[in-house]
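Saturday, quiet lab. Running sequence design on the structure tokens for the scaffold JK sent over.
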């Protein structure tokens, strides 16, 4: 992976946003491999495809590229709310790739926000554009990155260092089975994972999880079987390879 972009491509484009788009898309196409399978590269989609910039021809995984000088941490501004929420519900949302670059177009970081982690709860409706706007009434969305468990952000490049692709793929691919679950089921899994991370411990037991029962109940006020659900989700996280069962009722987080 070469972290220097080809700025000569910007010649002929007047607007800074067009230049940034051309340069970053070219870099992505030449350097980035599919995280979801073993394919060496991903392909640009037609310019008319809304909110999807790249697709893997081997496994069909989709990627949306966003370039920043400094990437957002809390809210990521995205496209139309209706189309994003629809794609999230249908399980066709793209993996969001956040690229950070310096003024002289060196890539300092590339972070993938895993598509399996995009559930309706993290897609925030923005206020419609005012009557004087060009697209009056149009409703966009924000992705609430700070609501995601840390596992949903997978570093491909950070601080100018390229991470080994085997590690990146392992961390990405273990969450692919989540995509086959409904958004409700995924919501439970992701909340459980978030709570596990909140403990900030390498190992924990069921009592530690039960102690956070109120937080689960707040998210799912109609569920009367929270503890059963927590145990079921811990089993699922074990099947995904996120944690291991040790002695009875004790869990150990894996890397
Ligand atoms: Zn692929």
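Result came back. Writing it out in full:
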């Amino acid at each position: 992976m070469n972290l220097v972009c080809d700025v000569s491509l910007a010649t002929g484009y007047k607007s800074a946003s067009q230049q940034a788009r051309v340069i970053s898309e070219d870099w992505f196409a030449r350097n980035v491999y599919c995280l979801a399978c073993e394919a060496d590269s991903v392909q640009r989609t037609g310019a008319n495809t809304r909110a999807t910039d790249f697709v893997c021809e081997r496994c069909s995984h989709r990627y949306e590229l966003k370039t920043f000088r400094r990437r957002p941490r809390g809210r990521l501004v995205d496209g139309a709310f209706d189309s994003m929420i629809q794609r999230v519900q249908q399980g066709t949302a793209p993996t969001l790739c956040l690229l950070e670059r310096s003024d002289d177009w060196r890539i300092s970081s590339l972070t993938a926000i895993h598509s399996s982690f995009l559930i309706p709860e993290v897609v925030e409706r923005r206020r419609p554009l005012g009557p004087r706007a060009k697209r009056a009434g149009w409703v966009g969305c924000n992705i609430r990155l700070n609501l995601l468990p840390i596992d949903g952000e997978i570093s491909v490049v950070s601080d100018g260092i390229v991470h080994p692709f085997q590690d990146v793929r392992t961390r990405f691919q273990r969450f692919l089975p989540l995509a086959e679950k409904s958004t409700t089921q995924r919501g439970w899994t992701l909340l459980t994972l978030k709570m596990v991370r909140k403990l900030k411990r390498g190992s924990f037991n069921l009592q530690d999880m039960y102690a956070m029962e109120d937080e689960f109940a707040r998210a799912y006020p109609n569920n009367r079987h929270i503890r059963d659900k927590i145990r079921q989700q811990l089993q699922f996280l074990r099947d995904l390879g996120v944690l291991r069962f040790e002695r009875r009722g004790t869990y150990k987080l894996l890397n």
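Notes for JK: The chain has a mean pLDDT of 94. The first strand starts at residue 43 and ends at 44. Ask whether to fix the surface positions before the next round.
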